[in-house]
Amino acid sequence: MEIETKDVITLTNGEEYVVCSKIDFNENKYLYLINPINQQDIKFVMETARDNKIFVSEIENENLIRQLLPLFYEKSKDIITEIDS
Q1: Of all residues in the chain, what percent are helix, strand and coil, respectively (each to 5)?
Q2: 81, 85, 79, 68: which is closest to 58 by C-alpha?
């Protein structure tokens, strides 16, 4: 099983988040999450698989987030262009 864009996941804090975008970077998978109740509550997480289970860990490294943001933007831009076509 994989986490996909538009999936809703519950983090350890009990809050639900929608997967808005998913990218591969440096052989890792990263997710851009938004809380559907409070859209200002966003998270960037790394997805890992272990023992046939999927785990996410929040990214707090500001430099890594700055590297990921343009990639999430490009991925989202491509999706929006497809929808507009």
Answers
A1: 25, 40, 30
A2: 68
The domain spans of the chain are 8-84
Residue 28, beta-bridge partner list: 25
What H or E segment, with its residue span, contains residue 59? none
Alpha helices (H) along 1-85: 62-84
Query: What's the whole-model pTM score?
Result: 0.86
Per-residue pLDDT of the chain (85 residues; tens, 9 = 90+): 789 989 999 999 899 999 999 999 999 999 999 999 999 999 999 999 999 899 999 999 999 999 999 999 888 776 655 555 5
Look up residue 27 and give its two tokens: 């052989």
